[in-house]
Structures are given as structure tokens and as C-alpha cells.
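Protein record

Derive C-alpha cells from sequence
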Amino acid sequence: MDLCHVPATREKGWYLALMAPNVKGPNYAWLDPSRLYCHPQGLQDCVADLLQPFQGDAIDMVAGIDAMGFILGAAAAATLRKGFLAIRKAGHLCVQTEAQPYTDYSGRQKLMELRTDAVSPGLRVLLVDQWVETGGTMRAAIELVERLGGVVAGVAAICMENSEGGRWIQERYKCSHCVPPRLQPRFDQHQ
């Protein structure tokens, strides 16, 4: 892995090639973006591409989803000069929370929590996660924000797969992802 090499021509999504394929089996995601996060220009370009569709939009706060969404979410919040809210898996927050059950990409039932004092009615929140595969995790985050009176200003992820859940989100919310249309079928088929 060359963390210094930057291509002379940087098209949207050039940094996707930095991701590493799964070598550990079916209990893990099929791609690991953590190497992309190690590349300074790759991370900057990824965040810029995610935020480009939201230029000029009213965004009050950025929320990242536990755990890898914390990386992109915090980077997006810093770029936008907005606060960052961590939406956590259950059991990690020692304050009053609102909870939402969901099924993750592996089919496991989980519980997500959001601190109740962070979202006020009308607060416009950009939700960020690393990946939207089945849409269950993102949909739980959306439900938590909206239950507390917040407004989902948008949804951003490196990839939004063309799954039933992914389509549900894209039909209802302004979305941004980094996968060029010509590569989307490969990502949807996990190739």
C-alpha cells in the first residue's frame, strides 16, 4: 500500500481502488475501506465527493453511525464546520437515549441508540456511514433522528447498494455516494 501515491488524474471514486477485499469469510463485509482512510488525499477526495451534492444545503449537524461511520462523519463535520453526533450501538452511552432495533447486513438483530438531548425539533442532520448494504442500519438511524423531531438533510456513504433497503432510502432522502455509475453493478454484486 502506497500512502503517498496520488494519481495525476483524479476522477470521482479513484480512491475506491485503495479498499481491500475480504479475506476472512462471510461474517465480514466484502470490502474494507480502512486502507482508504489511511491515504491522506484519498480520504480528502472521498469526503469532498460525499459532500458535493449538499453544497449550499442547510445542515446543522453531521451524525456518523457506529463504528466506521464515525470516521467519515467526523471528517465531514470538520469540513463543514459543524458538530458531530455519534449514533451508537446499544450499551455504550451513559446518558438518556432513544433506541431503535434493526437488522444489520449480516442478518443479526441489534439495537441502536441516540442521546435524546442532541437532536432538537427541526435540527437538520446529515447522516453518514461507511456503507449502505441492506439499509437496515441507516434506516434505524433515520427513524431515531426523526422520532426526536430532527430532519434528515441527507444520507452519505461510500457505497449505497441497489438493494431494497438502499432504494427505500434513495427514494425518500437526498443521497450521496462515491461509486461511479459504471461500477455500481459490480458493487451491488460484491465483485
